[in-house]
Amino acid sequence: MGLLPGGDGEELRERFRAQGRADLEEARRRDARRARGMHVAFAGLVVVVCLGLTVVRLGAGDAAGVWVASYAVGAVLGGLGFLLARGGRTRWAVVVICVAVAVASLGDSPAFR
Questions:
Q1: Alpha carbon distance 70, 51 (integer Å)
Q2: How much is the pTM?
């Protein structure tokens, strides 16, 4: 004899288990969209900063050298991170963006001035 009239409670258990699944899926989708947006914005910022630093340093009269290549590689990798993030590959985007920042920061090294 079950606690519920007309059944053993399996239907109630199944309805209880399914209750939060839709909300959980929507929360996951929302978090994924938020992560993609954040990574896209950060990759775009890396590209803009790399290109801006190139223009500023060339405008200041610095001779073109390895630092230009460093900033250019940083900008290209930032663009790749942008594309990866838009495509939903946020983990790879983070890796590529970190490498872009590291390579671009070499352009500010005293060895390249």
A1: 11
A2: 0.74
